Amino acid sequence: MASLFSDMRTLGAGLCLLASIGLGAQSVAPQDPARTSERAGERIRALVREADILAAQQSKLLGELKKLEADRQAKVAEVTRVERDLQETQRRLNESRVKADALRKTADAERPEVVSRLVHLYKLGRAGYWRMLFDVDDLRSMGRAYRTAAALTRLDRDRVQAHQRTLNALAKERKDLEARAVQLAGLQEESRRARVALDRSVAAHNSLIDSIDARRDLNTQMTTDLEAAQ
Asked: Which domains does the chain have, with CATH numbers?
C-alpha cells in the first residue's frame, strides 16, 4: 500500500506538471512564431518525459495487480477449503452427539435390569451360589449352572464397562471436534478479512491504472496539439 500511495503522489505531481504545461500553452504569444516554436519544443520534451514516467508507473502497477490477483485467487481457494473443512467437522460433531445420545438412551434403558441382576447375585453371595448349585441333579448340570451364573455376572459387568468406554470415547471425540471447529472458525474469519483487504487493494490498483490511462491519453493529445502548433 505504501508503494501505491507513492505512485499516487508521483501521479499527482505529473498532473500538476501537465496542468502547468497547458496553462503555459495558453499564454504563448501568437505574434512570436520562433518563440512559440521553441516553447512548444520544450513542452513536447517535457510531455515525452512525463509519458515515460506514466508508462513506467502503469507497468509497475500492472505487475503488482497481477500478483494481487494471484494472491486473491489463492485466498478464495483457502476460504473455500476452510469452509468445507468446517462443514465436515460440524457434520461429524452432530453425528457424534447423535451416537452419544443413542448410546446413553440404550444404557439408561438397560441399566435397571443390569442393576437388578447384579443386586440379586450380590445378595446370593457364596451361600446363594451353593444353594443354586445344590438345586441341580448331577455334577455336569452343577458345572453348567456355575458357569452360567459367573457368565451372567461377567456379561453384565462387561456391558456396563463397554458402554462407559464408548461414552468416554465419544466425549473425547466431541471435545476434539469442538476444538477443531473453533480453530476453523478463526481461520475462516482471518481468511475472509485477508480476502477483503486484497479486494480493496485490487480495486485501488485498478482505479489508479484507469487514472493513468486517462492522463496518458491527455498527454498524447497535448503532445499532438503542441506538435501541430510548432
From this structure: 2-229 (1.10.287.2610)
